[in-house]
Amino acid sequence: MDESAPFLQAAPWLGGQVQIETQWLNPAARGRRPLIVFLHEGLGSLAQWRDFPRQLCEAADCPGLVFSRPGYGRSTPRSAPWPRDYLQEQARALPAYFDALGLRGERLFLFGHSDGASLALLLAAYFPERVRGLVAMAPHLFIEPITFEGLRRARQAYEQGSLRAALRRHHADTDSAFFGWNDAWLNPDFQQWNIEADLRTLACPVLALQGIDDEYATLAQIEAIARLRPGTRLCVLAGCGHAPQREQPQRVIDETMALLAACED
């Protein structure tokens, strides 16, 4: 049996029971090296990370956990609309999934991208005893005008362009993945969304990375993390957009490994 093959894990989720598409990476390192948990972006999934998690885990000689949150990938779909606080909801739900995998009591190293970076920050703030450190790559802490511009472009590409077909390769229910995310963020009520107050209890080491050419946010996002968590390592990537793991993977790996080493000192 291939221990690294994706599988469906049953877990409690927001008052119900779901199936979560799950994959272990480098399982031979379990127990002797920190477990890196990958939290995908707002239109992401296990598959859409491509080979980056494996590259990072092999470089760091760490085990990895990659999964599709409910509503994404091959996990249980979730009907729209999602509430304005859906990321806060998911952060509170994730420990039950980790417990279902036998990770109760294990301190995790989180690697989050975009929505997943916001989720990593929330998870670390809500459950500081479960998180040893985190990477927040292209995070969102509050709404900016550029965020709405990117969301509207994504909707046009989904409804009139090729985005729907592209996502179909990665999600069992493409509309669940797209409209759950896009409808929530374009809802007028979402204009006041801000998680800075939630992050005041953030206590673990943090690396915050962002590309200068990010299509969804400005550097104000990672600068806010540095204000909330003194000692945060800031990494500004020139010539890089919203997906540093695809555009500058080696730089991201190098910076992550430096934080991992600091967490183990």
Automatic annotation (TrEMBL):
<dbReference type="InterPro" id="IPR050266">
    <property type="entry name" value="AB_hydrolase_sf"/>
</dbReference>
<dbReference type="InterPro" id="IPR029058">
    <property type="entry name" value="AB_hydrolase_fold"/>
</dbReference>
<protein>
    <submittedName>
        <fullName>Alpha/beta hydrolase</fullName>
    </submittedName>
</protein>
<feature type="domain" description="AB hydrolase-1">
    <location>
        <begin position="36"/>
        <end position="254"/>
    </location>
</feature>
<dbReference type="InterPro" id="IPR000073">
    <property type="entry name" value="AB_hydrolase_1"/>
</dbReference>
<dbReference type="GO" id="GO:0016787">
    <property type="term" value="F:hydrolase activity"/>
</dbReference>
<dbReference type="Pfam" id="PF12697">
    <property type="entry name" value="Abhydrolase_6"/>
</dbReference>
<keyword id="KW-0378">Hydrolase</keyword>
